[in-house]
Amino acid sequence: MIRRTFLADVGLGFTGLALGAMLQRDGIVRAEPGSATPHHAPKAKSVIWIFLSGGYSHLETFDPKPALNHYAGLTFDRTPFANPLDSPLHDRRSRSVVAAEINQRDRYPIVYPMQVGWRKHGQSGIEISDWLPHIASCVDDLAIVRSMYTTDNDHAAENQIHTGRHRLDEVQPSIGSWVHYGLGSLNDNLPQYLVLGGPTRSDTRASIDANYLGPRHNGIPLNLDPNNPLPNGRRDTSILADEQRNEFELINRLNGLAGVEYPEDANLRARIRTYELAFRMQTSIPEAVALSSESAETQRLYGLDQPNTRLAGERLLAARRFVERGVRFVQVFPSPYGVWDSHRDLRGNHARLCATIDKPVAGLLKDLKRRGLFDDVLVVFCTEFGRTPGLEQRGGGRDGRDHHPHGFSVFFAGAGVKRGIVHGATDELGFHALEPGHYVTDMHATVLHLLGLDGRRLEVPGRRRLNVDFGEPIREIMVSGLVS
């Protein structure tokens, strides 16, 4: 931000900041590099990014492999297929933090059968696991990508799928932060990048962090308690609203005086905007998270009436309410940290966990459609990696699958996305994403493209990004007219 813009904002107080934000949103002014109107015509206005922590098995969800049942108990080299452990893709798409001879976690050669059945669904005839009957009922609205891969074989991949960088590399901003940086506000009373249920713990903070983009672009975690949605965000009952407004105005003027001396201080600029937004959020946030105002039928649609689906249902229903009110990016963690990590008892673990998210996710998709939001909101459903086709044998394991970055599945739905299609594939055993596979930043590029942004034009002076950081939009899943 240039000095005169900064001084004008702090000099005009709350009114000036709000006016600046609205003018920026309307494309009349630009508050800082990166905060601009779209680069091309957008198809999506908002994003709901659903992340399941721990790594769900692609084989027991969206990419069933009959060969696993047919050759169960045999080693890979005794099947009629090429041994995936010998493929050049293995080392090309794998980067262990420790020495390869120590960390051979994905080299389990005994074929482990699927732990659930599957059927074709909808007019598209796409195969979905029997553990996901509600999502299967929406299959004709989904674009499933079965050829994703990442490079981290441990749970730092949770950060990698959101930032695009391996933990051995320089940390990059999260996808939600890039959206916030590139597009700015649709609603001046709400944060534009909200996080529900996360970050899942302190070492996953990078998955919602703006890093060098500056703290104003960080994701803001919220509780869903209408009485206390934001920590320390309630006005004390002993303080009148006008008194608090005066306090905030004084703080803003004092910060403005500091800003004269330090006009390039990103933390100071973020603090000034935070005080202003916090004042407005005291009214807007509690209203947005008041899920009890929804009809009983809608609450049932999301599973709020059942103990096992209530947590995910509340978070996804709140996400719909936020995008409906103009929030750009809502990042939802419907499950606690790492719970999908099924090294043991994959059948019991995944059967239970699928039941917790199946109805709420399907409820979200159906609710967006009936409320006329499906053409405005992009839904992304993902995890950090898949699970090994081979039986995990560490520690005498007999009924689980280990981490598997080499090939896994995600889905997109909603604005700008083709409906009822499968794009990409893994090999016959579900091991490798077949060429051309999609690295995680292709998901980022797809999101940005549908929002009207070109990631290569979101460069920050002095910050050199790698080519892989930008990714490529997955054009095969986009509706016609979006390939540019």
Can you characterise this structure?
The strands form 3 sheets. Strands 1, 4, 5, 6, 7, 8, 11, 12 and 13 form a 9-stranded mixed beta sheet that branches. A two-stranded antiparallel ribbon has the order 2-3. With 484 residues, it is of the alpha/beta class. Helix 1 crosses helix 7 and helix 10 runs parallel beside helix 11. The longest helix is centred in the last third of the chain and has 25 residues. It contains 13 helices and 13 strands. It has one domain: Alkaline Phosphatase, subunit A (3-Layer(aba) Sandwich), CATH 3.40.720.
Short description:
The protein has 484 residues and is α/β, with parallel strands linked by helices. It has helices at 3-25, 66-70, 88-92, 133-136, 157-163, 175-183, 241-261, 266-288, 296-301, 307-324, 346-370, 440-450, 467-470, and strands at 46-52, 118-121, 126-129, 142-149, 193-196, 220-222, 329-332, 377-383, 386-387, 403-404, 408-414, 421-423, 438-439. The chain contains 13 helices and 13 strands.
